[in-house]
Amino acid sequence: MGPRPPRAEALTGHPSQVTVSGELQAFIARHRVARLATAAPDGRPHVIPICFAFDGRAFYFALDDKPKQVDPRRLRRVRNIEANPQVALVIDEYHEDWGRLGYVLIQGVAAILEEGGEQEAALRLLEARYPQYQQMELVRRRRPVVRITPTHVRAWGATGP
Questions:
Q1: What proportion of the chain, given as a percentage, has pLDDT over 70?
Q2: Per-residue pLDDT tens for 100-109?
Q3: Which of 21, 39, 53, 118 is an S-S bond match for 125, by CB 3.0 to 4.6 Å?
Q4: What angle do CA 86, 55, 129 make, to 5 degrees?
Q5: Is the separation of the CB atoms in 87 and 109 below 8 Å?
Q6: What is the pLDDT of residue 4?
Q7: Cα–Cα distance, 56 to 131 (Å, whole number)
C-alpha cells in the first residue's frame, strides 16, 4: 500500500466562472463512467452510474434507450432533477495501491434539454464518445439530454497524468 495521495485544490464559483484545469479535464476524459447523485423532494439520495460527455464547461448525459422500467422522462433521476436541480457527479480511480487513488467531485445545477442546438451538440459529443450511442441514433431521434453546469469542483489524490 502506497502513501496517501495529496489533495488538489477546489474550484468554486458562479456556474459560468468555474473552469476545470487541463489536468483534471484529462482525468475526466480517461474515465467512461461517473456516478450521478440526486435527491428526492423528501431528501432521499439516489445514486446511479452514467455515461457522460464533458465539453470543458458542462457535463451531459442522455436519456437513452437502454432498457428501463418506465418512460425515460419519468425516471427517478429526472423527477429528482425537476424537483431539485442541485446534483453531484463523482468520477473516480481505484487501485490496490492506495497511493494511486483519485477522484473528482463535481457539484452543479442540472437542466433537462429537450431540443435546440445545445441538446444536439451534446448528443453528438455522446455519440462520439460511446459507439453504442451511435447504434441508438441519439441525434436522429433527438433524445433528451441532461446538462450539469458545475458550481464546485474538488479533486483529490492522483488525478494527474
A1: 80
A2: 899 999 999 9
A3: 53
A4: 105
A5: yes
A6: 46
A7: 21
Cβ pair 102, 5 in contact under 8 A? yes
Domain covering 7-55+72-112+147-157 in this structure, CATH number: 2.30.110.10
- Shortest CA distance to 54 belongs to which of 145, 125, 121, 160? 125
Name residue 3's amino acid.
P
Residue type, 90: V
Q: What one-letter code names the amino acid at 16?
A: S
Location of C-alpha cell 432533477? 81
Q: Kindly report the backbone phi and psi dihedral angles of residue 80, in degrees, each rounded to the nearest multiple of 5, phi listed first.
A: -65, -45
**Grid cell 456516478 — which residue?**
35
Task: Render pLDDT for 53-94 as a digit per residue (tens, 0 to 9).
Answer: 999 999 999 986 655 565 666 788 999 999 999 999 999 999
- Please give the grid coordinates belonging to residue 144: 433528451
For 137, which DSSP code?
Answer: T
What is the secondary structure of 101-129 as a DSSP string?
A: -EEEEEEEEEEEE-SSHHHHHHHHHHHHH
Q: What is the pTM of this model?
A: 0.84
Q: Record the cell numbers describing residue 80, joined without a space.
A: 429528482
Residue 1 confidence (pLDDT): 47
